[in-house]
Amino acid sequence: MLLFALAFSANAAAPWRQVLDERLALYGHRNWIVIADSAYPLQSGPGIETILSNESQIDTVRHVLNVLSKDKRVRPVVYLDKELNFVPEESAIGISAYRQLLTGLFTTRQPVPLPHEDIIGMLDKAGKTFNVLIIKTNMTLPYTSVFLELRAAYWGDAEEQRLRQTMR
Predict the structure, then answer these.
(1) What is the model's pLDDT at position 14?
(2) Residue 112 half-sphere exposure, CB side, CA atoms within 13 Å?
(3) Is-contact 143 116, C-beta < 8 A?
(4) pLDDT digits (tens, 9 = 90+) for 56-79
(5) Closest by alpha carbon to 126, among 19, 48, 34?
(6) What pTM value is reported for the model?
(7) Mind listing the domains of the chain with CATH numbers?
(8) Please, what sign has the CA dihedral across residues 68, 32, 168, 158?
(9) pLDDT digit string, tens, across residues 28-40
(10) Residue 95: enclosing H or E segment and its boundaries?
(11) CA-based max dimension of the chain
């Protein structure tokens, strides 16, 4: 128990950007990175790690996307909660501005909207075999988490489909 506490406190003390860089050096396709709002739960799957960002949600997303854009090994498939598009401004002041800022970050990659529970299920399944890094921010708006499934940058989805078709 003491060893776990020491490992957790040492990890918690490391700046989130440093932890991201360390994990990305090891990550490959099928790993996930999540930039989560402040109410996102501490998931307990064996491969799921949660760290805290001291930056805003948008700045954290921007930084992670920037780092990934320079990585020649992996590329993100971006998932957003489908519910985000339906949250009314009067129920969550600032959600419209957030949606607009978020849209500006995805100029080259279109996010895939899926129901929140479906994405959580995908993370749960991935975390049983692969590592998932959750970066919690101080965001206090609902359904604002950004989910990044890493895939090989040098081998695209079309190439994989052709290979599978040939193998049949």
Answers:
(1) 59
(2) 10
(3) yes
(4) 999 999 999 999 999 999 999 999
(5) 48
(6) 0.87
(7) 2-167 (3.40.1650.10)
(8) negative
(9) 999 999 999 999 9
(10) helix 95-105
(11) 53
